[in-house]
User: What shape does this take?
Amino acid sequence: MHVLLIFILALIEPPGKPVVKDVPNDEGGKINITWKPTLQIEEIGGYVIYRAEKDEPYEEIGSTDKWTTQFTDSKTKDGIKYQYQIAAVKNGEILVRSQTSETVISSGQWFHTGRLNIFIGIIIYSALVLWFIYQARKGKEMYIRKIAGLDALEEAVGRATEMGKPILYVPGLSSIADIATIASLNILSQVAKKTAEYNTTLLVPNRNPVVYTVAQEVVKEAYTNAGRPDAYNPDNVYFITGNQFAYVAAVCGTMVREKPATNLFLGYFWAESLILAETGASTGAIQIAGTDSVFQLPFFITACDYTLIGEELYAASAYLSKEPLLMGSLKGQDWGKMIIFAILLIGSALILIGFNQILSLFNI
Assistant: This one.
């Protein structure tokens, strides 16, 4: 038996010398190992990978089946020199070992060369935004398509003033971490400025305590900027409760009792959207809603006079304030989207005619 084993071992050629390389475009701590298989592949059960630091004994770090000739060592330490050997094994016994690999060191990379397209895209996008901000600050007129809900805002505030009734502003039910809430607070600033100019009461009930604190400061600053700090009433920006439907019940009660001339529902909403919108509609108020929640948009569209859909909510602060920084950012984003759309359109056409190399632009 021993003679037969020795004879088999003599016939089996060792795996090829391992080719070792640091894994590119990673955070470090990884080394790729590849090798040529033994020619007598049917006589082995698989491969075992051994690793050693300089002048240290080899230790087993992993194994593969006999058809796999690649392994990634993901437990290395950057800056330390390693060498590798590959052993062909069968039934737990080492049949033959490869030569020792060259010395290799793992390291992390600062720049991912495979994502150069993303870097170029960021540079182009940033340049567009900065260019349009520069143009806006120079006083260049910038076209933004009409948004009916925002155009009606002036009319809604004026109507409330004529009727001597308040305006109810609901900044959504989400936290300050939600982008829709931030957009809503930006709009609140512009609405508060108009109500200060018209001397109209603005009611802002809040569900989230952090949003409540920010909303107070936003409204106070808007009244100050409008030259009416004396007209600001901190009691009109108030916290109700953190409970979803208890908050909605309180807001609906306010709508029924106070009968505001205008209801503004701007922010992120959940299942309560239809309750709020239907209650407001029953009081005869002008209602302007806006959210980026696709699940609640149908309810607002049905029950409100005007609805800001998705990105219209984000663009509203720039639309209302005409602030150069916001206008430039908005135009830069629009042009960035147009460029992406053009690339996708041209890329699709090129793929249809067989030019598949264009797909490399979209690798991430």
